[in-house]
């Protein structure tokens, strides 16, 4: 049995890639220095996987920004506005960020979530005359690099149908599937180049197979693998994030040498596909969860896999469910976790070790080492039984329908809120965070090391908050925020104050580019021991007569952006989190904070990949939000924020959340996302983003006016707010202040024009 790695985290144990990228973007290091750091990371990650027993090392899982963007560059799919001669590394950064140390800045490409994950990819832009040709050699160079080190390699590439599915069309409307023949020709060229290097296996990822594909897309899969099988290479067709059992007949007919299944998503697929494997065909069993951090119950997995190991022999490969991109790198770095919690965990390196141990259990179940593994699994199960809280369970059992409803309908609330706040037409606000400067990060680091007292830390953060309020007042923003200087992350901050939630020191996971997050660990029933945000919200409100928003992260987002326990349903955990946020809303309201934002950027991320399974999720996700917000009085204005989401298929659920104001990302799509709100006749208020905060470019007043005029063509003026796309934590003050000044001036100009 081979051990199969589908991909490894690329950021490094200490986020070396993140810091190198940001230094390069600031022109503090040269491109050769960046490339040298990247090469060392790849060498380290290959070595770790080889030491764990992985024979075919994945290449192509490394990216300087995003693997989808890398593939776009490989085939020359670069928007015209970013083209400037041959494609180079700076081309990728201009596409992703809007600018690079060299070249002319231009609007960044659209970015959105990769299937149902919190990983963001750069959306390929395809036109009707799109040409595909090998234009960027990174994939081939890295394969040659690994081969030169003496490794056997398995290139890992997004498959052609998934690539087309993730792309968007620009210019004249057309069916992007008509580009498939030309795209397949480019894939063939790439595969031939791999073959020329002496490579035997190539992994083609088709997560699109987890969707319920119509006939046209199923035909595209069939045609693609008819064409690609003509290259004399062994193709491993990999799908993940969901079951592909509904496409069993389609997949079983494809001319591929192996199939990878996500058995964490659906363990029943194993029997289905094992029964219909072609002679010599490999089945890669994705049994180790590549999207969560909990240690696998290897003894139970071995029991399940044992008959298939006997049936298939070396044709059974053992693998994580998907790429380990979604997990932190190394649990051994964690020195502050309690032993009982640490025993429950496995990060990327440990998951490879689990594969090795599982292999040993299947080969020699009675060996002493195997018995030790089984004993460890039994201890883990015993530890997990301590996770229940009777008080939390009783509170959930006592909920009634009234706990999910606001007092009155939105029309009544809107009048009450307008009487209270007297906001102008097109009110301006921001999404929550303001720049986390180097000084603030250094202060927090010194405080955590004990070099700064708690009182001094508090005093310094008060000065930062006061400065943030004063800057907003000077800019003329209508509804202020306190800036969140005390918060490292919108989920981590709340998790640190909730019972049943744990934290790591180095459990970083890439979200996009150089952006990394450190998800909390929800390991037990969740409750709120004490208020979490009152002190800072009250202090900020004391500095001004203008309203200051209370800033909360919603229950669904905390759930999705945490590593959540697996012994109870996610629906139940969402309800527990909703009760904690509900208590916070009640306390904020009690001390006079009358505008409260409950962010839910991950709301759509939780959608099952199969549309037929959506409604159950939407029902409980909407209910969790409503439970958190329904305690608000009529004149308490509840905001929510969603970014980088497609709303077409979920607009009814978003309306059912019944937030008074929703703010959304729309600047990169040039307000196209508002079409669905217009068609649905969305009843509540909307803040379409006019400032792309993920790019260092500063939008002009004219650009923002043009965007809001587009918005006003779709949404009645009285419903519109003016705001950035997202929080401003990652930007610098010298970028933020002129951009917000232009935003406020744009709103004033529109009020003058539109009355």
Low-confidence stretches: none
CATH hierarchy, class of the largest domain: Alpha Beta
Shape: globular
What would CATH call the architecture of the largest domain?
A: Alpha-Beta Barrel
Rg over CA atoms, rounded to whole Å, is 26 Å
| Average of per-residue pLDDT values | 94
Helix content: 40-55%
GO molecular function, one term: zinc ion binding
Domain Cobalamin-independent methionine synthase MetE C-terminal/archaeal: 426-748
Binding site for Zn(2+) 1: 641, 643, 665, 726
Keywords: Amino-acid biosynthesis, Metal-binding, Methionine biosynthesis, Methyltransferase, Repeat, Transferase, Zinc
Defining traits:
metal-binding; zinc; methyltransferase; TIM Barrel; 27 helices; 2 domains; Cbl-indep_Met_Synth_N; repeat
Explained architecture:
It is a single chain. The chain has a seven-stranded parallel β-sheet with strand order 1-5-7-8-9-10-11. Strands 16-18-19-20-21 form a five-stranded parallel β-sheet. Strands 12-15-17 form a three-stranded mixed β-sheet. The chain folds into two domains: 16-76 and 105-384, TIM Barrel; 390-754, TIM Barrel (Alpha-Beta Barrel). The model has no long low-confidence stretch (mean pLDDT 94). Strand 13 and strand 14 (515-517) form a beta hairpin. The longest helix has 22 residues, at 454-475. It is an alpha/beta fold. The relative contact order is 0.09. Helix 1 (16-25) packs antiparallel against helix 2, helix 17 runs antiparallel to helix 18 (454-475) and helix 26 packs across helix 27. The protein starts with 15 loop residues before the first helix and ends with a helix. The chain is built from 27 helices and 21 strands.
């Amino acid at each position: 049995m081979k051990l199969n790695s589908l991909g490894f985290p690329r950021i490094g144990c200490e986020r070396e890639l993140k810091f190198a990228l940001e230094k390069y973007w600031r022109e503090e290091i040269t491109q050769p220095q960046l490339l040298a750091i990247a090469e060392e990371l790849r060498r380290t990650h290959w070595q770790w996987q080889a030491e764990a027993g992985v024979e075919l090392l994945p290449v192509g899982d490394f990216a300087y920004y995003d693997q989808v963007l890398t593939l776009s560059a490989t085939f020359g799919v670069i928007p015209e506005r970013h083209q400037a001669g041959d494609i180079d590394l700076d081309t990728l950064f201009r596409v992703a960020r809007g600018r690079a140390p060299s070249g002319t800045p231009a609007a960044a490409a659209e970015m959105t979530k990769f299937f149902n994950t919190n990983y963001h990819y750069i959306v390929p832009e395809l036109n009707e005359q799109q040409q595909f040709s090998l234009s960027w050699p990174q994939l081939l160079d890295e394969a040659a690099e690994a081969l030169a080190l003496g490794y056997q390699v398995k290139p890992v590439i997004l498959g052609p149908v998934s690539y087309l599915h993730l792309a968007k069309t620009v210019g004249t409307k057309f069916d992007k599937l008509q580009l498939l023949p030309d795209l397949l020709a480019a894939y063939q060229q790439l595969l031939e180049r791999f073959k020329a290097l002496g490579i035997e296996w190539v992994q083609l990822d088709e997560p699109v197979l987890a969707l319920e594909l119509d006939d046209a897309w199923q035909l595209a899969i069939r045609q693609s693998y008819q064409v690609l099988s003509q290259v004399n290479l062994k193709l491993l067709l990999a799908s993940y994030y969901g079951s592909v059992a509904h496409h069993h007949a389609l997949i079983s007919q494809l001319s591929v040498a192996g199939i990878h299944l996500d058995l964490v998503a659906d363990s029943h697929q194993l029997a289905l596909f094992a029964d219909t494997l072609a002679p010599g065909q490999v089945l890669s069993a994705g049994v180790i969860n590549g999207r969560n951090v909990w240690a696998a119950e290897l003894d139970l997995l071995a029991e399940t896999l044992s008959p298939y190991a006997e049936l298939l022999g070396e044709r059974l490969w053992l693998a994580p469910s998907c790429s380990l991109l979604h997990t932190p790198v190394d649990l051994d770095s964690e020195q502050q976790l309690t032993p009982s919690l640490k025993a429950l965990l496995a990060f990327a390196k440990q998951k490879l070790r689990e594969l090795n141990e599982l292999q040993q259990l299947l080969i020699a179940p009675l060996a002493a080492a195997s018995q030790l593994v089984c004993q460890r699994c039994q201890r883990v199960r015993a530890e997990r039984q301590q996770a229940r809280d009777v008080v939390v369970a009783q509170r959930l059992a006592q909920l009634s329908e009234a706990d999910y409803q606001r007092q009155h309908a939105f029309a009544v609330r809107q009048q009450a809120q307008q009487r209270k706040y007297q906001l102008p037409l097109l009110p301006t606000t921001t999404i929550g965070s303001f720049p986390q400067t180097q000084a603030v990060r250094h202060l927090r680091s010194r405080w955590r090391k004990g070099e700064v007292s708690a009182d001094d830390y508090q005093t310094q953060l008060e000065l930062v908050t006061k400065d943030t309020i004063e800057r907003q007042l000077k800019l003329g923003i209508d509804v202020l925020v306190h800036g969140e200087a005390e918060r490292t992350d919108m989920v981590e901050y709340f998790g640190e104050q909730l019972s049943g939630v744990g934290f790591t020191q180095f459990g970083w996971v890439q979200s996009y580019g150089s952006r990394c997050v450190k998800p909390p660990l929800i390991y037990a029933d969740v409750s709120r021991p004490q208020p979490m945000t009152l002190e800072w919200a009250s202090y900020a409100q004391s500095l001004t007569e203008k309203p200051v928003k209370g800033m909360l992260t919603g229950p669904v987002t905390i759930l999705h952006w945490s590593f959540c326990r697996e012994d109870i349903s996610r629906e139940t955990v969402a309800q527990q989190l909703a009760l904690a946020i509900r208590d916070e809303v009640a306390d904020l309201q009690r001390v006079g904070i009358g505008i409260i934002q409950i962010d839910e950027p991950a709301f759509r991320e939780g959608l099952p990949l199969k549309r037929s399974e959506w409604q159950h999720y939407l029902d409980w996700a909407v209910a969790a939000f409503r439970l958190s917000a329904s305690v608000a009085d009529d004149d308490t204005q509840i905001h929510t924020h969603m970014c980088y989401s497609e709303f077409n298929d979920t607009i009814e659920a978003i309306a059912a959340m019944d937030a008074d104001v929703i703010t959304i990302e729309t600047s990169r799509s040039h307000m196209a996302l508002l079409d669905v709100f217009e068609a649905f006749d969305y009843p509540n208020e909307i803040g379409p983003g006019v400032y792309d905060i993920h790019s260092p470019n500063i939008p002009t007043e004219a650009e923002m006016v043009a965007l809001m005029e587009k918005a006003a063509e779709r949404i009645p003026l009285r419903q519109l707010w003016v705001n950035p796309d997202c929080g401003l934590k990652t930007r610098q003050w010298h970028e933020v202040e002129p951009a917000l000044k232009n935003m406020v001036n744009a709103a004033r100009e529109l009020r003058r024009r539109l009355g």
